[in-house]
Amino acid sequence: METPLIEFKDVSKRFGTRTILDRVNLQIYEGQVTTIIGLSGSGKSVLLKHIIGLLKPDEGTILFRGKAIAEMKKKEIATSLAQISYMFQDNALFDSMTVYENIALPLRETTDLGKAEIDRRVMARIEQTELSEAAHRYPSELSGGMQKRAALARALVIDPQIVLFDEPTSGQDPVRKNAILSMIAQYQRKFGFTAIMVSHEIPDVYFISNRILALYDRKIVFQGTPEELENFDHPFNDEVIRSIEGLQEELTGLYSKRQFKVMNHAQLKRRTLGETYSVAIFTLEDLGEIVKNLGYDAAQEAIKGMGVYIDKHFSAIGGFSTRLSSNEFVTVLPFSDLAEAENILSDFVRDLQAHGIRDIWADTRKQAAADVCVEFAILAGIAQGQPIAEIDSIIDSAKNQQKEIARLRCDGGR
Amino acid sequence: MTLNENSRKLSESKAGWQTVTLLTGPFAVFGRAAISWVNNLGAAVIFLLLAFLKIFRHKQLSKIVQQVYYIGARSTMIIMLVGLFTGMVLGLQSYHALVKFGAQGALGTMVALSLVREMGPVLTAIMITARAGSAITAEIGIQRISEQIDALDTMRIDPLSYLISPRIAAAIISFPILTVLFDLIGIIGGYVSGVLLLGANAGTYFFRVQTSTEMKDLTDGFIKAIVFAVIVSTVCCYQGYFTHMRTDSHGAKAVGLATTSAVVLSCVLVLVSDYVVTSLLI
Fold it and tell me: How far is residue A62's CA from residue A51's CA, in Å, rounded to a whole number?
């Protein structure tokens, strides 16, 4: 069995008479995105600070690659901790330093690299995080999203093997929240670090997380994949996840992935055996090109615009939708066979080609970091489902049927 | 033994405890305050020793130079202004006191010795505390409450070495230089009021300044300036660094209180240590 990168064994932490962590046991594995979820004030940040060594447990053991930190020599601890970077909830940027100086600080102070090499590495991170124009500005002169990116650039400049993110999306609007999460996912894939994140953003974090740890009542009550969490029968699900998802639905109109499945099952139960439904899958192609040319904020605006457009169109006729992955949406059309679904979809395609894609582009452009046009396409595929068939297999079948339904062309054509 | 007897004895013993608590209460308050004071003093001494040792680490020079500019160079104007008027007041008061005894020729001696031995080091230390010390506490305090110091820890940058050591080194360099500047400008101030305004003899004034000021006076003033530098920089850095440990307040209010405590404590300790150092050197 794989040795966990970080393991907590019966870790307890108290502040005065208040117990924050009570015999916590958890495992975090290398190369994955692990997200710790829980209510505000449940001790998620305290847990994270134990990993980086800012706090020490009152009881229990923390193991790093199978070895107890308490038994390590000072030099060994320093070597282990040198592989970890930490991104603070409030960024913790030095307000008397420019963005460039903030990012260069760990290299200047902890390495013997020359000025030219430091400059090369810092500028590379600045470009990757789209902060070129803000390099010589102070943190107070930046927007919240840019400050987050600066903090992320500083955390990544030492090429860490493990990055801890403490509420990376706190205080951000919905578009920027998704932008930051996709940025973390993209960098994690690009640089291959192990990401450990504390977040409230349910279900958004499910899309980028390999594992979820649920902290509830001072203990880790769940460890597993996002899919396993959906079937987890525990008060945590009622008290934490449903309350957050309820808010999410009110804010965006789209259902969470879990609610989507629940609704689908409810619809199926009501129907008699043999009745059909259809599933449509929509994909925003060329999302990478939008990110590359216009930035994360613009890409997230495009995704948001597409989600709102799909929901507006299909919810009016009884459909319900959710986001499937970073650039995919799924819609269930109850009581519709394939022929009906194709008719509904052709109305949608006409509308999308006439106005929708331009509206999406107009909103995207407002958030763009550069004044350039990026061509992108929207694909759609439909499949007919049977009540006895699993929704996932219908989704796969719809994906296989996908074809281009609209394209934004920079020369004005569609 | 009956139940009644038991409960009577219990209430008697409770009443006895209450009397003891009432009598020892005030002493307990002083005791707790004394323990807390000794704890803080010990922590501050360890803080100073660790920070002092880290002055000699790699990559410190540029940070020390930066702090010398901030603590020293940028305090020059205020030190010159205060030095000038201190010297002028000293010249004015001394002249009127000495003229009664026909001893106005000793004006230079009085002004020079007062400044070099006492007023120069003490007033310089107090002025730097007010100008730079308070800013050091506020800056470090804000860095503490906004997790910037924790961020240094997570980046494997030693906060003591990065934030505190350069400031202590810069204070040790700046205080004696500014004290000498204060003394010089003060002597000129005494000349302005005593000689130019009140008519004392210029030659006698400078002759007395030169003959009465010995090397020992200068080195004593120098030693005092270094002692004050260590006290002021340690107190101001310590108060800022441990802002988050304050029990009387949190956040921005804690930074404000830490700054006030740093200034008041530094000034009091400067005056107390002045007496101690003088009595040892005299």
Answer: 8
User: For residue A157, which amino acid is it?
Assistant: V
Neighboring chain B residues of A108 at a CB cutoff of 8 Å: 59
Which residues in A390-400 are b (16+ Cβ under 10 Å) and which e? ebeebbebbbe
Mutate which of B148, B149, B165 to disrupt the A interface (most A C-beta within 10 Å)? Answer: B148
Query: What is the average per-residue pLDDT within A131-152?
Result: 89
Q: Mutating which of B67, B140, B152, B154 best tests the A interface, going by the most A Cβ atoms within 10 A?
A: B154
Gap from B164 CA to chain A (nearest CA, Å): 15
Domain that holds residue B256: 60-281
Q: Number of C-alpha atoms within 13 angstroms, CB side, residue B106? A: 13
The CATH code that applies to domain A253-408 is 3.30.70.270
* CB-closest option in A84, A88, A96 to B151: A88
Q: What is the mean pLDDT of residues A366-376?
A: 79
Provide mean pLDDT across the span A386-403: 79
With beta carbons under 8 A apart, name residues in chain A contacting B147: 88, 90, 92
pLDDT in tens, A211-257: 989 888 888 998 988 878 777 777 777 666 665 555 455 445 555 55
Residue B20 placed within a domain:
no
Measured between beta carbons, the chain A residues lying within 8 angstroms of B143 are 94
Inspect the interface and report whether the beta carbons of B157 and A78 lie closer than 8 Å: no
pLDDT, mean of residues A48-63: 90
Q: Where are the domains of chain A?
A: 6-241, 253-408
From residue B141, alpha-carbon distances to A404, B149, B161 in Å are: 58, 9, 16
Domain A6-241 has CATH 3.40.50.300: yes
In tens, the pLDDT along A313-357 reads: 887 777 888 877 778 888 888 778 888 888 888 888 888 888 888
Work out whether the CA dihedral A99, A105, A107, A112 comes out positive or negative: positive
| B153/A54 Cβ within 8 A | yes
Q: CB distance A109–B147 less than 8 Å?
A: no
Average pLDDT over residues A396-400: 86
Domain membership flag for residue B6: no
pLDDT average, residue stretch A164-182 = 77
Asked if B148's CB is within 8 angstroms of A94's CB, the reply is yes
How far A270 CA lies from chain B's nearest CA (Å)? 54
Contact A140, B142 (CB under 8 A): no
**Spatial distance between the Cα atoms of A102 and A116, rounded to a whole number of angstroms:** 16
| CA B149-A97-A83 angle, 5° bins | 50
Number of residue pairs across A and B with CB atoms under 8 Å? 46
Report the mean per-residue pLDDT for chain A.
Answer: 82
Enter the pTM of the model. Answer: 0.71
Report the domain count for chain B: 1
Residue of B nearest to A90 (CA): B146
Tell me the per-residue pLDDT of A108-123, one tens digit each, with 9 for 90 and over.
998 999 999 999 999 9
d(CA B218, CA B229): 16
Predicted-complex ipTM score: 0.78
Distance from C-alpha of A179 to C-alpha of A26, rounded to nearest angstrom: 29
| DSSP H or E run through A220 | strand A219-224
What per-residue confidence (pLDDT) applies to B134? Answer: 95
* Listed residue (A279, A294, A269) closest to A384, CA to CA: A279
Which residues of chain B have a CB within 8 Å of the CB of A109?
Answer: 59, 155, 157, 162
Q: Are B239 and B262 in contact (CB under 8 A)?
A: yes
